[in-house]
From TrEMBL:
Pfam short name (any one): WCX
Record-linked PANTHER family: PTHR34580, SLL5097 PROTEIN (PTHR34580:SF9)
The WCX domain, residue ranges: 323-383
Signal peptide stretch: none
Top-rank lineage group of the source organism: Bacteria
Protein name: WYL domain-containing transcriptional regulator
Helix-turn-helix type domain location: 7-52
């Protein structure tokens, strides 16, 4: 393992131990300079670890310990060999396998044929691959290194593929393998992406226990009877689950589903128990409902509005509004002189008004009248708290 991999592994271990690290601590522990600190933080981000800068400090966002050690180049070569053989079973002899693998190892500046041959030999010794009667390589299926997998494991692999980045090794091969699994096993992609309001969640928004419970009851095809705590006490409903939703601002996750003809939002933290139901689920990933969720500003489906707001175009305001625009599919943002004009189509006008209040006098509602009234009443109440202003 090279010095780069050792430093990355050490940085992962440090974040697991302390969570927040200063720039000076990283420099001292890894024996690197300021510029290299930024590079190594960038390496962690490429591997899917979210790191937040905090005034010469860095914080790792995580729920559990950061996973694993980075694999070394020899292991990467063996992975590439196994993926190549599995995708081209019975096609390559030793020479053509070496040629194919050599061309695809673009992440290494130079690698000799002997190095690849040694990696092939390691795969053979471990009985991952073998030469058939035609002297062509195939992957081994009679080996302790391969085992039967179940639907839960398949789903985990598919879910990981969704967040696997283009910059990661063998991106194309991994996604090709995913597509083959889905096709050959006639496996229905669960479409388990959690809908997010605001930024994408960086931690696991819904606990593994909740996920396992819903999966065990086949919630995509059957309704689920959920008992949960509400403002009026404990309630029990038979709900046809549409999807799960995460509200970044409130840091809350919800089960979204239909009860008769009404859409319910149930905070997962309020759930007491879930049990199976004989009722069919006709609303899982219901397109019309999902389209509405895309337009929600908060966890609310109150009246629909088209809004237009004018913002002062200063650096910090521009950064915040641009971030909002990035996370809203239906929004538009244009520059008009020293102003920014933000327009959007949304449900949840009161949630949107609460967001606008954080800008104070740096924003002005242009449309609709209903939103203007909400903002006006808010500031009238604030003025009343300070008494009536009289002209002297």
């Amino acid at each position: 393992m090279g010095i780069k991999e050792r430093r990355i592994n050490k940085l992962i271990a440090l974040f697991n131990e302390r969570e927040v690290l200063t720039v000076e601590e990283i420099k001292e522990e890894l024996e690197i300079n300021d510029r290299s600190v930024k590079s190594y933080i960038g390496f962690l981000r490429e591997y899917g670890i979210e790191i937040i800068p905090m005034n010469k400090r860095y914080k790792a966002i995580k729920e559990e310990k950061l996973t694993g050690n980075l694999i070394n180049k020899q292991e990467l070569r063996m992975m590439k060999i196994m993926l190549t053989v599995s995708e081209n079973s019975g096609c390559f002899d030793r020479k053509s396998l070496v040629d194919n693998v050599n061309k695809s190892l673009f992440d290494e500046e130079s690698v000799s044929r002997k190095t690849i041959e040694r990696a092939i030999k390691s795969c053979e010794e471990k009985k991952y691959i073998y030469l058939d009667e035609n002297n062509k390589y195939r992957t081994s299926i009679v080996t302790d290194s391969f085992y039967f997998t179940n639907d839960e494991d398949i789903f985990k692999f598919i879910e990981l593929c969704e967040i696997y980045k283009v910059s990661m090794p063998f991106y194309k091969e991994v996604n090709n393998l995913k597509n083959k699994i889905v096709t050959q096993l006639d496996y229905e992609d669960p479409s388990y992406n959690i809908y997010c309001i605001g930024r994408k969640y960086s931690e696991e928004a819904i606990s593994k226990d909740i996920i396992r419970q819903f999966e065990s009851l086949n919630y995509r095809k059957k309704a689920i009877t959920i008992s949960y705590n509400s403002k009026i006490g404990e309630l029990t409903e038979s709900i046809q689950v549409v999807t799960f939703l995460y509200n970044w601002e409130k840091d809350k996750s919800y089960v979204i589903g239909m009860v008769k003809d009404k859409l319910y939002f149930i905070d997962v933290k309020t759930i007491i128990s879930i049990v199976p139901s004989d009722l069919e689920n006709e609303f899982f990933n219901h397109k019309e409902t999902l389209d509405k969720l895309d337009l929600m500003f908060g966890a609310s489906l109150d009246e629909f509005y088209e809004v237009k707001v004018e913002f002062v175009n200063t650096f910090n305001i521009k950064e915040k509004v641009t971030r909002l625009h990035k996370h809203r599919k239906s929004s538009k943002l244009i520059k008009d002189g020293d102003k920014l004009i933000y327009s959007d189509k949304l449900y949840g006008i009161y949630d949107f008004a609460r967001y606008l209040r954080s800008f104070g006098s740096y924003c002005k509602v242009l449309e609709p009248v209903e939103l203007k009234d909400i903002m006006r009443k808010t500031y009238e109440k604030i003025l009343l708290n300070y008494g009536e202003i009289k002209n002297e």
